[in-house]
Every structure is written in C-alpha cells, then in structure tokens.
Amino acid sequence: MPLPQFAVIFIGALTAAALTIWTLSFGGPALMLVTLPLFMIAAVLVAYLRR
C-alpha cells in the first residue's frame, strides 16, 4: 500500500475514533445513537467518491 493512501486511512481512523470518544464523553449514549448513522453515511460517501 502506498504511503499517502495509508496516511489518509490512518488519519481517517484516528479522526473517527476521536469523534466517537468525544461524542460519548460530552453527549452521552443518546447522542451517540443519533450520530452513528451519520458516521456510517459519511463512510459510504467517502467510499463512493473514491471510485
């Protein structure tokens, strides 16, 4: 895997983890349930745009 592609995937994973922890810390479980579908939609859009 080329280094730039690995870097983008790694930074994306770190950002998703940070957003998940931040949402759980400050918003609680109810907000997490609302934002999970939004994260999934964003992931599908990124995968679709990479084609």
What would your notes on this structure say?
- Keywords: Membrane, Transmembrane, Transmembrane helix.
- The chain crosses the membrane at residues 7-24, 30-49.
- The chain has 51 residues and is an all-alpha fold.
- It has one domain.
- It has helices spanning 3-26, 28-49.
- Helix 1 (3-26) runs antiparallel to helix 2 (28-49).
- The protein is flat.
- 0% of the residues are buried.
Describe the SSE topology.
Layout: H1 3-26, H2 28-49
Helix pairs in contact: 1-2
In brief:
The chain has 51 residues and is mostly helical.
| Alpha-carbon distance between the two ends | 17 Å
N-to-C SSE string, H for helix and E for strand: HH
Number of helices: 2
Overall shape: flat
Proportion of strand residues: under 5%
Helix content: over 70%
Number of strands: 0
Mean pLDDT over the residues: 79
Q: Please summarize the sheet with the most strands.
A: none
Class based on secondary structure composition and strand pairing: mainly alpha
Low-confidence stretches: none
Total of domains: 1
Radius of gyration: 13 Å
Keywords: Membrane, Transmembrane, Transmembrane helix
Transmembrane segments: 7-24, 30-49
Overview features:
mainly alpha; flat; 2 helices; 90% helix; 51 residues
